[in-house]
Fold this sequence. Notes:
CATH architecture: Orthogonal Bundle
Radius of gyration: 20 Å
Low-confidence stretches: none
Number of domains: 1
Largest sheet: 3 strands, antiparallel
Strand order of the largest sheet: 1-3-2
Distance between the termini: 19 Å
CATH topology: Arc Repressor Mutant, subunit A
Shape: elongated
Structural class: mainly alpha
Helix content: 55-70%
Order of helices and strands: HHHEHHEEH
Number of strands: 3
CATH superfamily: Winged helix-like DNA-binding domain superfamily/Winged helix DNA-binding domain
Number of helices: 6
CATH class: Mainly Alpha
Mean pLDDT: 91
Strand content: 5-15%
Amino acid sequence: MNDFEIECCDTTEVHKDLLEIVTKTMPQENELYDLAELFKVFGDSTRIRILFVLFEAEVCVCDLAEALNMTQSAISHQLKILKQNKLVKNRREGKSIFYSLADNHVKTIIAQGMEHIREEKIITP
């Protein structure tokens, strides 16, 4: 058996006490949908790269384009998605618009993801 094979019970037995706990604590379907949509935003490496730049500094589209070796148009498209999902915010200063992370939750989500992928071994309960 390889490490990725899924093992199943030998018999069918429903554990009603456990299901009752799960049923009481399960978020509403619309919240689960919104959470899945949020994680889809993190599914694009360009958006992740933008977020990593914004971890370090508040920057404008020109700076992001230069740092990531991309066009301003491509950066703007990704920033729009990040802003719609409340992951980045912006402010105007003269003729420039500076982008930053919307809040510390964004950094926490990315940091936890990095911690997870860097684990040397999978810990099983």
